[in-house]
Structure formats: C-alpha cells, structure tokens
Design goal:
Largest sheet: 6 strands, antiparallel, barrel
Strand content: 35-45%
Radius of gyration: 23 Å
Distance between the termini: 26 Å
Order of helices and strands: EEEHEHEEEEHEEEE
Strand order of the largest sheet: 1-2-11-10-7-12
Helix content: under 10%
Length: 211
C-alpha cells in the first residue's frame, strides 16, 4: 500500500529525549483513520487519486450523504495521489502506519493567521525616516505609484493587508516516532498552522534521514 501521504491534525509541540539525553523538539500530529470515499481514475476523471474523508461532523446535507454512501460524516474531504498498480476501494482506512521512525516527510498546511498587518510586518519594509521633522510616516509604505502616468496602482503592489493563512510547506522533517495504535506521529521541528489545523503529511523525495 503506497500513497503520497495522509492527513492529520496538529496537536501542539513538546520534546522527547534520545538515548544520549539530547532533547529533541517535536510536533505531535494526530492521524485519525483517513477513509477512502472515492477512487478517481485516469480513464474516468483524467487523473488518478483517492478522495479521503477526515474528521467527523454532526450533520451533512442530502447530496453529501449520497456521495459518502454511509461511510461516515466527515468534516474534510481531501485528495491523495497513489502509486499505479495499487488497489483501493471505498471504505479502506489509511493511517500513520505508512511511516516509520527515520523517514523524512513534507508537512503542508495553512500558516497561522496574523490578521491585518502593515507593510513592515507583512513585507519587511524599512519604514520612513525617523528624523527631519516627520512625525507620522515611520511605518508608512511610501509611494505606491506615479500620479500622471500610469495614474493607477499597479497590480501586485506590496501593501498592507491580510497576513497569514496561506498554504505553507515545511520540507524534509524527520519522523521521530510513529504509534499506529494511538494514531500519533511525532515529527522533528515546527510545522505550519495553529493547534487543531488540518495538515498533510507527505513522503519526502529524500526518503530516509541520514541519522
């Protein structure tokens, strides 16, 4: 059985100790069973993937009930690519047993939301001069375009606005421990998102950690 990864929920960070007493910072990811809802094929859908259901919810509408076919009431529906030649069917459960200690993984998820942020925090601007009589331009963006030509703000201009919640990937994190019975995965280092965020834990092309 080989998929590109599984989906899990970020529980938070802690530390574990190696045999020599070294403290290792880890992120705890809860990987509840990913239930295969639909198998997409290249012949029918144009690409090959598994649609999996993750988490639970109290209510789903009638069209979704028909789509889920009594497999459960899932909070999230996501897709995973899988290797050619592998056989899957709706109802199959996927968990963190596809990983083992020493594997390298790429973890993707939404970054923490920072709300409305100015240009210094959002884009790293230096701000205006702090002297020579100015009193209210220290954190201002400065000019955002010429007045006569082109007479408008060009698309893509770096300005103040909503910061965070963008999809972020941290690559080549080492799996420190894997407990399939409890559905717990410990990954070295920090990963995107707040506690409770849905994360995709995928296989890294590099495979295994060197040590």
């Amino acid at each position: 059985m080989s998929t590109e990864g599984v989906f899990g929920r970020k529980l938070g960070m802690t530390q574990v100790f190696e045999n020599d007493g070294t403290a290792v910072p880890v992120t705890v990811i809860e990987v509840t069973p990913n239930t295969v809802v639909q198998v997409k094929t290249a012949e029918r859908d144009g690409y090959q993937a598994l649609q999996v259901g993750v988490g639970t919810r109290k209510r789903v509408n009638s069209p979704m009930k028909g789509h889920l076919r009594n497999l459960g009431q899932f909070r999230h529906l996501r897709e995973l690519r899988f290797d050619a030649g592998e056989e899957y069917e709706p109802g199959k459960k996927l968990g963190c047993e596809i990983f083992e200690a020493g594997d390298l993984v790429d973890v993707s998820g939404p970054a923490k939301g920072r709300g409305f942020a100015g240009v210094m925090k959002r884009h790293g601007f230096h701000g205006g001069p702090k002297t020579h009589g100015q009193s209210d331009r220290a954190r201002a963006p400065g000019s955002i375009g010429a007045g006569t030509d082109p007479g408008k703000v060009i698309k893509g201009m770096k300005m103040a606005g909503h910061m965070g919640t963008n999809q972020t990937t941290v690559k080549n994190l080492k799996v420190v421990r894997c407990d399939p019975d409890k559905g717990i995965l410990l990954v070295r280092g920090a990963v995107p998102g707040n506690e409770g965020a849905l994360l995709k834990v995928g296989r890294s092309p590099r495979g295994k950690a060197k040590r």
